[in-house]
Amino acid sequence: MPRTTIHQEAPAHNRPLVATENLKKHFTIEESLLARYLAGAKNRVVRAVDGVSIQILPGETLGLVGESGCGKSTLGRTIVGLYEPTEGDVRFQGKPLWGQGSMPKSALRRQAQIIFQNPYSSLNPRHTVRQIIGVALAARGVRPEDREVETVGLLRRVGLGSDHIDRYPHQFSGGQRQRIGVARALATNPEFVVADEPLSSLDVSVQAQIINLLQELQEEYGLTYLFITHDLRVAYHMSHRVAVMYLGQVVESADTDMLYENPLHPYTQALLSAIPSVDASHRANRILLEGTVPTPIDPPAGCRFHPRCRHRMPICEQEAPNLVPVQTRMQTGAAHRSAKRMGDESANGSATEVVNEVVNGRINNGANDMMKNVVRRKERTNINRMDAQHLVRCHLHIR
């Protein structure tokens, strides 16, 4: 099936803008006095993020996908300094965010921002748009007499008007509130933005508008995104690279085309098989995960995915695999060839084909303009990125 999208080539900078090294964020659940003294209960620890190492290059978008509760939002909030890490290191422009020689928090707030999942709960209901954006402008050092002009300019840039400046959040629709959240994030002139599931509370037509807006802003301002989402189709069209999280750890990371054409981890294969399709043959190839979903309070020993994995081996229950590079090549139909090597003879076609099929149907039906900016992207200058690094955490691929 012919490709309908060509991803923008990620800038080839040697030094990442954002990097984490063995990052961990644990939360302690404290038991009540009665439970501790009468029942002998002990405090429990939620390992929300448990040893994540990623790098995000300037100007690129790293998509972060995974099921609910896997630690995506916690990772994003820790990277921008809203949470202090339990262990590990976060670096922005090469400077640590915590500890000796750390980057001043005021400088971090200006250069790294976050767009929250629920725009209604993230906006102060007692403040007007003027006040909400004014706080961010004040943090940037904009003089009070200049803030109204700046605010109106930001509102117009995100598709709102000057008449919206003195309205309260409850007077806007969901899509308009999310645009206000985007404007607030842009007010500090950031270099890096965490988009924490910015589309989850919006209908499909509004989602397309926000996608187009984020892509236009990235091209205009040279923004770097950590794009957190549940929608694998959106991740495909937004991201230069994609990382897959499961139970607090990254289990696979690769160039977007490479991961969708040739998913190596069984969990990634199951996620991609769940992409909705109108093709009956694709629906018949759905991979259903069995077994109970583990909890981050008491993750299983060995590989954390082994209780639900259809390829589990004895070593999976005994030894935790590391995230290691795997030699792979990007090619059409590689997903089903890889699946066959791993024992899934029913796999047909690649996730890329399913994604394109769904989006093409939306365009042909005129349902939305999700692809308005995608089809205008620059053609890749390095089509033959055949040896891009593909990382996977699975004993099946460790020699």
Shape: globular
Give the number of helices: 14
Radius of gyration, rounded? 22 Å
- Give the helix/strand class: alpha/beta
For the biggest β-sheet, the strand order reads 7-8-9-4-10-11-13-12
Tell me the series of helices and strands, N- to C-terminal. Answer: EHEEEHEEHEHHHHEHEHEEHHHEHHE
Question: What fraction, in percent, of the residue positions are helical?
Answer: 25-40%
Poorly predicted runs of 5 or more residues: 1-7, 331-348, 358-387
* Average pLDDT for all residues: 83
Beta-strand segment tally: 13
Q: Write down the oligomeric state.
A: single chain
Q: In what range is the share of β-strand residues?
A: 15-25%
Terminal residue distance:
34 Å
Main β sheet profile: 8 strands, mixed
Describe the structure.
- There is one protein chain.
- With 399 residues, the chain is an alpha/beta fold.
- It is built from 14 helices and 13 strands.
- An 8-stranded mixed β-sheet has the order 7-8-9-4-10-11-13-12, sandwiched between helices.
- Strand 8, helix 8 and strand 9 form a beta-alpha-beta unit.
- Helix 5 crosses helix 6 (147-157) and helix 6 (147-157) packs across helix 7.
- The longest helix has 18 residues, at 204-221.
- The two termini are 34 Å apart.
- Mean pLDDT is 83; it is low at 1-7, 331-348 and 358-387.
